[in-house]
Design brief:
The chain is an alpha/beta fold and 324 residues long. The protein is built from twelve helices and ten strands. The chain starts with a helix and ends in a 10-residue tail after the last strand.
Length: 324
């Protein structure tokens, strides 16, 4: 069912523009071809306002000509992941390892810091063996691509083989797949979750309230009822969500669904994404005011990932410019 839903995604820009009733003049602002091609799930395309090129979902997924801007500091591998990657295993932080479970996503987000990533040729079995040998690892984070682009069968095999490693105490899945297709939470998926013995956390990537909806909440509720905590991470993106009202609505809606906002990331400086970068002044304004709007448990940590650091770095607001 969810695979059928993903097949309805838009990968052809002309077809998408016809669907969105975008004019010829408006079309000229977008890139017809990109090495990181258009991939927009039908569920999200339906939520984009017709004839609007400022829509926050359109801006996240449709390739803009601004991606051609070359800006100092914006590089192909901003987090220098190549240097900490062995096959499909990335070791950035002590005790935790990232496993690149899949190289496919349910959507192509234009700001993605792995948009230039070249997938290694090693297998999942090799990655599991590597994690088995490294006894310092107590938590494995399934990332990608999107780990939930694996079939239930593949996922079950992977999760069970990780659970069988005694020193691995917890698992985590980072995903955006439920936003593309809430149908991903199907009976077989719930069954495999029910069979797990070790704690499994979900971290959903969500940037804008328009990505939410009753269909998504219904699916997530099924996961919550099984006792698997759901957290979120978001990226602060220029013109998409860099205003107080959008962020407040996003995080309040999430906590009303028992989902906890975990991280709000500063954009990683990846080549082709500089038009999404926010200014320190906007960051400070949003963040300070947001703090007054939300209960402490609903206020995400504002962080930046810096290559070589042993954890995500909190952004200190007092170092930002003064708000007049
Ligand atoms: S779903 Fe995640 S990994 Fe895939 S393109 Fe979007 S941000 Fe990147």
């Amino acid at each position: 069912m969810w695979k059928k839903e993903l097949k309805k995604s838009f990968s052809d820009l002309s077809q998408l523009f016809d669907f969105l009733e975008i004019s010829k003049k408006q079309k000229s602002l977008f890139l017809e071809k990109s090495s990181f091609p258009l991939l927009l799930p039908y569920r999200l395309a339906q939520k984009i306002k017709k004839r609007s090129i400022d829509d926050p979902l359109l801006l996240q997924f449709v390739p803009s000509k601004k991606e051609k801007i070359e800006k100092k500091g914006f590089t192909l591998d901003p987090l220098q992941e190549k240097s900490c990657c062995t096959g499909r295993v990335l070791r950035k932080y002590p005790k935790r390892a990232l496993l690149l479970a899949s190289f496919f996503c349910g959507m192509h987000c234009r700001f993605c810091f792995r948009r230039h990533f070249s997938p290694p040729s090693s297998s999942l079995e090799e990655a599991v063996e590597e994690l088995r040998k490294d006894k310092t690892i107590s938590e494995v984070i399934l990332s990608g691509g999107d780990p939930l682009s694996l079939s239930n069968q593949e996922l079950k095999k992977l999760l069970q083989s990780l659970e069988d490693i005694p020193h691995i105490e917890r698992l985590r899945i980072h995903t955006r797949m439920f936003i593309a297709a809430p149908e991903r939470v199907d009976e077989d998926f719930l069954l495999l979750l029910r069979e797990l013995k070790k704690p499994l956390y979900f971290v959903l990537h969500i940037n804008h309230p328009h990505e939410l909806g009753e269909d998504l909440f219904l699916s997530l509720k099924k996961i919550l009822l099984l006792g698997h905590p759901i957290l979120t991470q978001s990226v602060l993106l220029r013109r998409v969500n860099d205003n107080l009202q959008t962020l407040t609505t996003l995080f309040e809606t999430l906590i009303n669904q028992r989902i906890l906002p975990y991280y709000l990331h500063k954009l990683d400086p990846c080549a082709g994404t500089s038009h999404f970068a926010t200014t320190p002044l906007i960051e400070k304004k949003c963040l300070l005011e947001l703090k007054n709007q939300l209960p402490g448990y609903g206020y995400p940590k504002f962080v930046q990932e810096i290559a070589g650091k042993k954890s995500k770095q909190p952004l200190v607001l007092r170092n930002c410019p003064r708000i007049k």
